[in-house]
Amino acid sequence: MRTWRFAGETYQCPVVLTIDRLRGRWKTNILWFIWTGTNRFNGICAALPQVQRGVIARQLRSLERDGLLYRTVICEKPLHIEYQLSELGESLAPLVASLAAWGEEHGTPQSLDTPSA
Predict the structure, then answer these.
(1) Domain residues of the chain, as ranges?
(2) Residue 68 has what pLDDT?
(3) pLDDT tens-place string over residues 73-95
(4) I need a surface site. Which of 16, 58, 83, 87 has the fewest CB within 10 A?
(5) Distances (CA, A) of 50 to 13, 26, 54
(6) What is the pLDDT of residues 30-67, one digit of tens each?
(7) What is d(CA 93, CA 110) in angstroms, rounded to the nearest whole number?
């Protein structure tokens, strides 16, 4: 039987390996925002106002630990943190784009000021 290793873990299925990298309610959102240009911590928090900052910070640390993001501290006043996709993170871009395309095709568009049903 073939197995795959990543981050010190062994997987029996490559799909599970991939899902484990993206597991976490907000990871795909965070990857999408960074991929589309929102790369500062405060910008990511503003894009996900329903999510506590601590939750976003944990998800970002996990993505960084898995090698999907680079974190840069900019020592200006005020101090800020920027994230960018690593080469490994960029390799997920087609997958995230496919997820977005599926959602656009099968979801019903709403403007932000329209109450949801």
Answers:
(1) 26-95
(2) 95
(3) 988 888 889 999 999 999 998 88
(4) 87
(5) 33, 11, 12
(6) 999 999 888 899 999 999 999 999 999 999 999 999 99
(7) 25
pTM above 0.85, yes or no: no
DSSP tag of 30:
H
Indicate the length of the chain as a whole number. Answer: 117
Which run of H or E residues covers position 60? helix 53-65
Q: Specify the pLDDT at position 72.
A: 93
* CA within 13 Å, CB half, 83: 30
Return the sign of the alpha-carbon dihedral for residues 23, 24, 29, 31: negative
CATH number of 26-95: 1.10.10.10
Asked if 68 contacts 96 with a C-beta cutoff of 8 angstroms, the reply is: no
| Amino acid identity at 91 | S
Q: Which tokens hold the place of 87?
A: 């080469």
Structure tokens at 52: 């506590």
Instruction: Give exposure, 28-45, as e/b (b: 16+ Cβ within 10 Å).
Output: bbbbbbbbeebbebebbb
